[in-house]
Amino acid sequence: MGKVTIQYCPLCKNSEIKKSLVCTDHYCSGESYDLFSCQDCKFTFTQNVPSESEIGAYYETPDYISHTNTRKGVANTLYHWVRSYMLRRKAALIERTSSLKKGYLLDVGAGTGYFANEMERRGWKVEAVEKSEAARQFATDHFGLSLEEDIERTTIRPGSLDVITLWHVMEHIHDLDGAWQKYYDLLGERGILVLALPNRASYDADKYKEDWAAYDVPRHIWHFTPDTVQRFGAKHNFILAEKYAIPFDAFYISLLSEKFRGSRFAFIRGMVTGTKAWFHTLGKREKSSSIIYIFRKKRDE
């Protein structure tokens, strides 16, 4: 199997990178993966992940919620409840930050199509891409959506998009620099790039360490903090305009983390940690389990 070995930091190009954690793939293979961190900028990534052409096998499990829509277990039931609530919140956020009630939106990594369907229902013109064939089929069967496998198969013209959204997707993308550049090219002058990402500087990440479910190796290649996200944006001529904590994610991630640890009373323990994380977030959003970032294109002076 082809593996991707990273020799230097993708963010600052420093060659001083060292192993910082060893994490396990709890969803699919049971394999262990090393997390490396840059000794300069502290950006962290999964080392020796499967190549882009081969990593698809690591998503083919009924437990991978964004692709299968499973309701099996307490954690996935909680996920569905929160998703229904967050769909409305996400749509309202898009309309407020873009200053548009209707526009042209691209949803990257659309999964089973719930968000794309919500925005289309509200009158937006929506393009959506998703690599998983099963997830695309679900979106077609349940919502009548036509999802493409990748952006290159769409007819989107450069500079034509009002909004690009990636809800917990950027951490999966192999060609990170190429993706940032592609989104910059596709957005209009006043367009916005919306990223939701796990935060490895969060309260729950600090608590669970290598058992933190949001490391999700090898599917999550990149592990961001608010600082490294902002620096990646600046590297590609984006300005971070706003950021928002996602308080509910701490409950879901903590529950899964307790499950992966094999804890007794995992649900109760996860809810307790999620509550503590929520209170930490009230005082400092940078400690949130996940954060939504709103980027705007830097304009020429």
Helices and strands, with pairings:
Layout: E1 3-4, E2 17-24, E3 32-38, E4 44-46, E5 49-50, H1 65-68, H2 73-98, E6 104-108, H3 114-121, E7 125-129, H4 133-143, E8 161-167, H5 176-186, E9 187-198, H6 203-208, E10 222-223, H7 226-235, E11 238-245, H8 249-261, H9 266-283, E12 290-297
Helix pairs in contact: 2-3, 8-9
Descriptive notes:
This protein is 36% helix and 23% strand. With 301 residues, it is of the alpha/beta class. The chain has a six-stranded mixed β-sheet, with helices on both faces. Helix 5 links the parallel strand 8 and strand 9. Helix 2 runs parallel beside helix 3 and helix 8 runs antiparallel to helix 9. The longest helix is centred in the first third of the chain and has 26 residues. It starts with a strand and ends with a strand.
What's the mean pLDDT score?
A: 92
The major beta sheet can be summarized as: 6 strands, mixed
Beta-strand residue percentage: 15-25%
What structural class results from the helix and strand content? Answer: alpha/beta
| Morphology call | globular
Estimate percent helicity: 25-40%
CA distance, first residue to last residue: 48 Å
The number of helical runs is 9
- Radius of gyration, whole Å: 18 Å
Low-confidence stretches: none
What is the count of β-strands? Answer: 12
**Topology order in helix (H) and strand (E) letters:** EEEEEHHEHEHEHEHEHEHHE
Please give the order of strands in the largest beta sheet.
7-6-8-9-12-11
